[in-house]
């Protein structure tokens, strides 16, 4: 029974590493994963309208972003920058008016509505109508920034050429980078972002890279052709990409760090963002099935369905693995079926061959991502999977079974998620922080799993010591292989133990609250606070390969133990 459970866990958790190959195999366009940098170096440039969406993230934050947008290395007479304020703040309106005295291409607009749920798409459509109402003609290109995303001075000149030089390209979008990730990355933010970045790189192979909601530049004519920004989904950016592809347009991924924003600074806010992204993408699958999306082609529906199914399967698979595998280890049963020595050798050789082929694939992918991807695979954000599974159940299954409306998501700037944690960290109270993590955030589940993992490891270790006294050492080695030391199972167990420990470590050693001025450097000429070079280098540094080296050593030791065995 334990062997069958482990086999099921291995199959289910292999979806993440096998699925990208299916995306590449299904790509019909010319591979463009390593696009050459393009820079518009002339002043013969088109007009661009820049919309900055805001919903209460903080006046100083959006004002800095607005100043950075105005200070782009681009002719100011060809720019119009509009801050779209869904918090209808009178103070912000006055501040924008003051800034516009020195920056006449900057303006403020608000719908003056009470916003209770996600509304970025409708805010953008309002911004487009507002630009038309100015009566100065429409710019041929539209750019969008989130309130916290600071564009580099070279932003437009780096992104726009990918659309200008390709008549079929509707939009070009750079990836999001974050400058406030604490030292050590305690919430594993990069492990959340790298799979998305790798996925977008793979989508780009078929000229269908996702729009990621901020930093993108697009043709206004293409947006008009699909009826504006779609408002029927939380994931309006990905849905817009699907509409554009169905209409024959291409979308381009720009692998350059030209926008820097703020990652969630508390566990509650981080988990809420993960849940929102999960619901947003999976909801597209639900919309396709309900027939509410009528503009997508069959190819695009299949693409969306594949990614939606991946997220669902991954959430349920890893949550199941978090419970099942530690319990199997604790019970002391064989984790793989009993095999003869020859069969064991063959199975281990096949497992090693699988590891080597996956390594070759991921080395190639890492080279395109500036070596920021570990050679042993795309990191899976295991510790967040239980929350993802719960939101999928709450958002889709429970409403359908009980006839209730799905839960709404509060816009980021209006959310109070994390206030208790910020207070605990400000007071340097580990007890209060542990209470927030374990109870308020629900990491008591991880505490239980970690306890089972440690108990199972202790049981296996003492059992192996006892066997070593009574039996031949080689027999003990082979017995261990069929229990916890079988490499694929060992690495699964290690991933689960690490995932269970991560939120506990965060509660015990919470990162200090970083002041904004310690993360940025003032550009006095542009009057903008840009992320400091040190912060950016830290975020973009190459991935450590220690886990890959450990896996290589484990496979080597296992092969030597089996190949030299006389059993």
UniProtKB/TrEMBL annotation:
Topology term for the membrane: Multi-pass membrane protein
Single GO MF descriptor: glycosyltransferase activity
One term under GO cellular component: membrane
InterPro entries attached to this UniProt entry: Glycosyltr_2/OpgH_subfam (IPR050321), Nucleotide-diphossugar_trans (IPR029044)
PANTHER family per the UniProt record, alphabetical: CELLULOSE SYNTHASE CATALYTIC SUBUNIT A [UDP-FORMING] (PTHR43867)
This protein's UniProt keywords: Glycosyltransferase, Membrane, Transferase, Transmembrane, Transmembrane helix
Transmembrane segments: 304-325, 444-466, 478-496, 543-562
Protein name as annotated: Glycosyltransferase
Pfam families: Glyco_tranf_2_3 (PF13641)
Superkingdom assignment: Eukaryota
Location(s) in or outside the cell: Membrane
Primary location: membrane
Species for this entry: Ramalina farinacea
């Amino acid at each position: 029974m334990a062997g069958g459970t482990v086999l099921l866990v291995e199959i289910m958790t292999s979806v993440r590493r096998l699925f990208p190959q299916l995306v590449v195999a299904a790509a019909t366009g010319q591979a463009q994963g390593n696009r050459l940098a393009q820079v518009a170096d002339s002043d013969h440039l088109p007009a661009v309208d820049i919309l900055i969406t805001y919903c209460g993230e903080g006046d100083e934050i959006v004002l800095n972003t607005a100043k950075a947008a105005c200070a782009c290395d681009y002719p100011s007479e060809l720019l119009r920058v509009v801050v779209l304020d869904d918090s209808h703040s009178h103070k912000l309106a006055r501040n924008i008016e003051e800034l516009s005295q020195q920056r006449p291409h900057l303006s403020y607009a608000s719908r003056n509505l009470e916003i209770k749920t996600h509304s970025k798409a409708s805010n953008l459509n309002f911004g487009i109508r507002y630009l038309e109402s100015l009566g100065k003609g429409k710019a041929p290109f539209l750019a969008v920034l989130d309130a916290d995303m600071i564009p580099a001075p070279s932003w437009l000149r780096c992104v726009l050429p990918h659309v200008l030089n390709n008549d079929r390209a509707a939009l070009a979008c750079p990836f999001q980078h974050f400058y406030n990730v604490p030292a050590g990355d305690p919430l594993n933010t990069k492990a959340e972002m790298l799979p998305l970045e790798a996925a977008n790189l793979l989508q780009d192979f078929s000229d269908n890279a996702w729009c990621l909601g901020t930093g993108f530049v697009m043709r206004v004519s293409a947006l008009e052709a699909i009826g504006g920004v779609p408002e029927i989904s939380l994931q309006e950016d990905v849905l817009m990409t699907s509409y554009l592809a169905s209409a024959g347009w291409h979308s381009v991924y720009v692998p350059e760090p030209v926008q820097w924003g703020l990652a969630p600074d508390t566990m509650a806010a981080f988990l809420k963002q993960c849940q929102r992204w999960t619901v947003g993408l999976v909801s597209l699958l639900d919309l396709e099935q309900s027939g509410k999306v009528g503009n997508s082609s069959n190819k695009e529906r299949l693409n969306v369905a594949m990614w939606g199914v991946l997220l669902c399967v991954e959430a349920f698979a890893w949550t199941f693995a978090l419970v099942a595998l530690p319990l199997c280890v604790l019970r002391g049963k064989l984790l793989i079926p009993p095999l003869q020595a020859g069969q064991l050798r063959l199975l281990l050789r096949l497992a090693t061959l699988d590891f080597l082929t996956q390594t070759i694939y991921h080395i190639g992918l890492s080279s395109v991502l500036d070596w920021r991807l570990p050679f042993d695979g795309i990191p899976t954000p295991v510790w967040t999977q239980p929350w993802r599974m719960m939101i999928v159940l709450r958002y889709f299954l429970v409403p359908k079974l009980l006839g209730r409306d799905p839960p709404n998501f509060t816009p980021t700037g209006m959310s109070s998620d994390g206030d208790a944690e910020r207070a605990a960290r400000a007071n340097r109270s580990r007890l209060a922080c542990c209470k927030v993590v374990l109870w308020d955030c629900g990491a008591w589940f991880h505490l239980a799993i970690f306890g089972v993992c440690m108990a199972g490891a202790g049981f296996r270790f003492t059992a192996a010591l006892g066997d070593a006294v009574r039996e031949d050492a080689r027999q003990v080695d082979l017995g261990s292989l069929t229990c916890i030391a079988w490499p694929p199972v060992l690495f699964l167990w290690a991933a689960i133990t690490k995932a269970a420990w991560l939120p506990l470590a965060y509660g015990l050693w919470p990162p200090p609250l970083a002041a904004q001025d310690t993360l940025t450097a003032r550009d006095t000429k542009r009057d903008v606070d840009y992320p400091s070079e040190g912060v950016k280098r830290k975020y973009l540094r190459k991935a450590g390969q220690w886990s890959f080296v450990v896996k290589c050593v484990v496979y080597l030791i296992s092969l030597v133990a089996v190949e030299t065995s006389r059993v």
